[in-house]
Amino acid sequence: MKAVHFGAGNIGRGFIGLLLDKAGYHTTFVDVNEQVIDEINLKKSYNVILADEAQKQERVTHITGINSTKNPEAVVDAIVHADIITTAVGATILPIIAKLIGKGLKERLKENKDSINVIACENMIGGSTLLKKHVLENMTDDEQKRINNQIGFPDAAVDRIVPNQSHEELLTVSVEPYYEWVVDQEAIKGTKPDIEGITYVSDLAPFIERKLFTVNTGHAVAAYLGYSMSFDTIKEVMDSSQVCPLVRGALEETGRVIVKQYGFDEKEHANYIEKIISRFQNPYISDHITRVARGPLRKLGKNDRLIRPATLYYDLFKEKPIYLAKAIAAALNYDYHEDQEAIELQKNISANGYKSALADIAEIDEKHPLIEAVIQQVNTL
Ligand SMILES: NC(=O)c1ccc[n+]([C@@H]2O[C@H](COP(=O)([O-])OP(=O)(O)OC[C@H]3O[C@@H](n4cnc5c(N)ncnc54)[C@H](O)[C@@H]3O)[C@@H](O)[C@H]2O)c1
Ligand SMILES: O=P(O)(O)OC[C@@H](O)[C@@H](O)[C@H](O)[C@H](O)CO
Asked: Which residue's alpha carbon is nearest to atom 7 within ligand 2?
């Protein structure tokens, strides 16, 4: 069995690549990072270290790499012969890789009649659906019809903390032991991929929102508030008696929304929050704040981890969230000079002011009560 996976980065190697390997796939990693691709082709294997006391290692073998900038034709060919396609490139990269995926799928439809599934493993609601939308752009009606019939784009939620890596061996990746990969089975075409570790569900919404608005909201709150107080790592933030209660406060707010919206059991959700807080405190992981805070424009988007639970909170309870507003205020102040989105964010605020910049980025009305709540918090930071 053959898999094509876009993005040989942290989650690509440390999570999706590992599970594909265990399920018996030969994985072709597609990436623009020449060094990583060359190393994959040279070493043909790598280690995944589970970040806990035991430090167990798992070896991923049966891998090949393709540099998509230099050799797009090889990517098209790999797609023609693949049994599954996955991605972990980052939400903003999906429209870019969609062109090559579209080319590969068109070629595949000419030569190969088998159905295939394309699963975007990104931190967003509707990642595969968005990828499909871009894949279908510039296709004829007939091509669109055939893609709709034969190619599945099931949305997914993926959860495993994989920090930035620095090991002697370039491909080695250290990951937390915990993982969750939930896939929408309703959108699968043909046979469901048999991969141990995937949980198929018929309604993904509760799972992706619970994950995004707990793990990723908690992470974002820790990162932006931690950055404003000059911490370096998530663990340091979580050990701080000043910031940790603010993270908990935000997770209580998102928890209220999730429980009300999806009917999760309150006690079970409280346990879920505790489990996540303990994952943030894993002493065997050093996760830098700037990785978790990366891409503040994306993270301040209307459907993302801060704004969506905050607006839902207001809609459901007619109250303004306090902790989420504080975290959004801290996110607005995120000015890390090596993050292109942080630079753009600061330019927007300098030109237009906090209120107008936030309304613009989050696509909410300037008169929305959340804006006023955030501005109040900006003044306290
Ligand atoms: N790291 C985590 O803890 C984690 C957990 C769950 C989900 N995710 C999600 O997984 C995705 C990847 O995150 P990551 O942490 O692995 O990031 P990463 O930066 O480590 O990996 C992304 C990879 O994509 C590659 N890439 C960029 N442009 C490309 C292109 N045009 N074609 C092919 N490859 C390209 C990069 O070179 C890089 O190797 C993101 O959507 C992230 O939100 C990450
Ligand atoms: O990947 P991002 O930029 O959307 O979010 C940063 C982290 O919160 C994220 O990568 C988590 O580590 C991951 O989602 C855990 O499952």
From this structure: 292
